[in-house]
Amino acid sequence: MTSTGYRWPLYDGATAKTYGSQTANVITVQGTAGTTYIYAGDRWDTSNLGASKLIWLPLTIRGTTVNLGQHPTWSLDVDAGTWTAGSGIPSDGVHTLKNLGSSLLMDVASGSTANGAKIIQ
User: Fold this and answer.
1) What are the DSSP calls for 50-109, one per residue?
2) Beta carbons of 39 and 56 less than 8 angstroms apart
3) Against a cut of 0.85, is the pTM above it?
4) pLDDT in tens, 84-102
5) Sign of the dihedral defined by the CA atoms of residues 118, 101, 55, 31, in that order
6) Nearest one of 2, 63, 59 to 29, comparing CA atoms
């Protein structure tokens, strides 16, 4: 998969580069103060695919270097297009991504899995 001139890892296997996940998508959040790229990966549980865990982490891009850092918690400002690292370890369970300004949940139009699908609130 190629996006904005960078090559993203397709699968990382057992190494720590993508924290045991495979790339599902790279989500672009463009705002008034910047653009954030979010790595969306999945950790397949082959014995129970429905229980497979998801991993969403911000990508840091400096020049031609892309870094997928491990941030136990982080916040996304959708309007500004920026993110900030938090601290601590997130709890297990279902997590949703919502706009703090409007409290609306972020979703993909018609549940599309296509590249470039419209993000809606």
Assistant:
1) GG-EEEEEEEEEETTEEEE---SSEEEETTTTEEEE--S-PPSS----B-TTT-PBPEEG
2) yes
3) no
4) 888 766 555 555 566 666 7
5) positive
6) 59
